[in-house]
Amino acid sequence: MLTFFITVFVALAIIWALAYHSASALVWSLVVGVGLAVGSVTGAIAGVLAGMVWLAFIAFAVIANSKALRLALLSSPIFSTYKKLLPQMSSTEQEALVAGTVWWDGDLFSGRPDWNKWLAVPRATLSAEEQAFVDGPTSKLCSMLDEWNITHEAHDLPANVWQFIKDNGFLGMIIPKEYGGKGFSAYGHSQVVMKISTRSSTAAVSVMVPNSLGPGELLMHYGTKAQKDYYLPRLAKGLEIPCFALTAPEAGSDAASMPDVGIVCKAMWNGVETLGLRLTWEKRYITLGPIATILGLAFKAYDPDRLLGGETDLGITCALIPTNHPGVNIGRRHMTLNAAFMNGPNSGKDVFIPMDWIIGGEAMLGQGWRMLMECLAAGRSISLPAQSIAAGKVTSFTSGAYSRVRQQFKTAIGKFEGIEEPLARIGAMTYLMDATRTITAGALDLGEKPSVLSAISKYHATERMRQVVVDAMDIHGGKGICLGPNNYLGRAYQQVPIAITVEGANILTRSLIIFGQGAIRCHPWVLKEMKAAREDSLDAFDEAFWEHLKFTICNAARSLWLGITAGVGLPAPACPETKRYYQQLTRFSSAFALLADVSMFVIGGSLKRKEKLSARLGDVLSYLYLSSCALKFYDERGQQKDELPLLKWALYDCAFKLQVAMDGIIKNFPNRPIAWVLRRLVFPKGMTLIQPSDQLGHEVAKILITPCAARDRLIAGMYLPDDEQDIMGRLNAAMHAVMAAEPVETKVRAAQKAGRITAKAQEAIFEEAKSLSVITDTELALWKRARALSNEVVRVDDFDMHFGVTVAQPTGKPIAGLTKYAEAAE
Question: Pairing mode, if any, of strands 411-412 and 407-408?
């Protein structure tokens, strides 16, 4: 009996080793054959059992190594069944699926990410011209912006600001230099949008939309030479204000149901009968629409009279229409949560346009959805992540400074554990957002269009923006909820849902896009299997299917072993502080590949409708990518040890949430016996990962409330004025003043405790301390300056009964007392 168990154990170990190393069919045959021979000679395998095992082995070896037999006996019937089960895809789904490129997401799907390759990806940097633009015109623009005036009083950017934006080329950052644009990199574009966003969301949106998905980008990639030569220079100079109209009242995420139509017809145009389209449309939520001079329009084109000689249903098409064209109704506004950027509806009925108004001309009829998806594959990596990290930097700076300035119970509130918790989330999530934004924008500059990673970047950046803004509001309390010139959080809190909603609503992105697109696009074999089915190629399917099966078996073996060892021993970059994180990510990459494959094998086409499972699978892929970005970001910045609390908190948080997502997949897997097996493979020792510790959170919070190099790097790139008359400059000055006065307060408290000071009122206490030589005149001035600045920082705005006139200190005028205290302190 003992011999039998030893034999079984050895056999299982050999099988596991072959699976772990993804051995070929020939290697399997040789190793298993040798093992059976040894077992037969030694008597470990004998009798009827030996005969059955040998027959099974011979059948396996012959079929596995003979392509003709494998095709006839296995691959052909499997192929027939596969084609029947393969879910139908709409044309819009197919075009979205093939849009963009596969980048690091392919490695994460492989179960074996190559970390050396990842760290060797070039770092995103600004050119000298881009840096000068960020430091010069962008900073100047920020200094001109008063978001309270813009959103509450003017409801628009001032005329001089609009002119500055046009004159300095902000609307043409992505347009090539040969057309008069800036020709900036994606990272340069991102840095500009981020900096403006730290000052004014209105200005940021007004700048980012012409540089994002819209007429400019579509013309650059698909326009005719005549269209490029005419429009691109005008867009670069701000002579044209573009908008792009896609969303309709009954067609948002489901573009296939778009009711807007263009009928191919002939009509008189400039006195000549001309082939064109007669358009009818109704759009809404169109940013810059109310002031646009050129309208990019998406519609479905039809040719019922076959004037073009082909199909009647031509597909989604994009055209450029001057907004002063007869029949175009535009100019009204939506009120988007008190944001002042221009946004509104537009419509038209039976509006004729000539064919050369189609972007790319007649040849691009019906190619509109492909054009949009290819551009969106890159565009989602820039604008909204830049806005999100701006919120992270602003909340990190303001919450940290306010927590140091604001005192309760004679202690800075940032030193209370209850405040440390949200401060830690703000700091670490800001670090994670910045890492993801920087790495993903850098990928675009390398020529990649990572559609899946762009969706991850957009979704997780905007969700973390929502979290950090809520946390900042909690920390600020009453300061945050009273709107006015001195409130630097309220508008961001109001407008967070806008970013959540646009460029693919987050619910849709998480439930359908990230894994739904990633599973097919990034998987090493699934797209090849689907292509073989479409082309009815049995040979191609045979290769892809059996490699896919071997891939799944390999990841099952790897998941079990790496779950037992927690990845210890895996190759990883040598940095001692981060090595274990790389190993854990490799472990979970293998487990993710296994869960994804088993889900597709077992649930099949129905997985598309299992949106909760798909969302959790997308979460796992997302946390693998976010963690990869954080590690690369840390490495790129020189492995600064003072950043480790930020990095570790972010990695612990991602790993814990990844574990929860995997647990949710297994708990809700529809086939319970397979779910039982999956749990033993993925979590052989149970769920062992934990959330970030309180001590780690304390270390992150300390960075935020203490001026230091790590804090400076965390908030780098935001606009921070030196002027104390500006609320942000005042908050910064208050933080430094309070810290300078802390030793003075310590001296006074010691004197009080010793009974030397008898005064009760705060001002009198410090005056008496000076008279007793406990503190000097300079120290008293330091304390008074800190107190004056602190009082101004915690002050909130108030208005008359009708909110017409503010009675708080007007913006831009000197604050009484600050100047004299500053002079005395000097």
Answer: antiparallel
Per-residue pLDDT tens for 105-136? 999 999 999 999 999 999 999 999 999 999 99
Cα separation of 376 and 450, whole Å? Answer: 10
Angle, helices 579-603 vs 672-682, to 10°: value is: 170
Using CB atoms within 10 A of its CB, is residue 608 exposed (0-12), middle (13-18) or buried (19+)? middle
CB 300 within 8 A of CB 317: yes
Q: 97's torsion region: left (phi>0), alpha (psi -120 to 50) or beta?
A: alpha
Q: How far is CA 164 from the centre of its chain?
A: 30
- Rounded to whole angstroms, the Cα distance separating 647 from 487 reads 30
User: Do residues 246 and 503 make contact, with C-beta atoms less than 8 angstroms apart?
Assistant: no
Residue 633: name the closest of 621, 646, 620 by CA. Answer: 646
Catalytically active residues are 503
pTM given for the model: 0.93
Nearest alpha-carbon partner for 518 in 110, 115, 109, 117: 109
How far, in Å, CA of 744 to CA of 752, rounded?
13
Pair 206, 288: CB distance under 8 Å = yes
* Cα separation values, 494 from 151, 473, 489, 497, 625, Å: 12, 11, 9, 7, 29
Question: Residue 279 corresponds to which amino acid?
Answer: L
Displacement of CA 541 from its chain's centroid (Å): 35
The per-residue pLDDT for range 278-288, each reduced to its tens digit, is 999 999 999 99
Among residues 406, 524, 388, the alpha carbon closest in space to that of 457 is found at: 388
Q: Which residues of 417-429 are buried (b: 16+ CB within 10 A; e: fewer)?
A: eebbbbbbbbbbb
Other CB atoms within a 10 A radius of the CB of residue 558 amount to 27
Query: What would the pLDDT profile of 348-376 be if each residue is shown by its tens digit?
Result: 999 999 999 999 999 999 998 888 888 87
CA–CA separation, 416 and 21 (whole Å) = 52
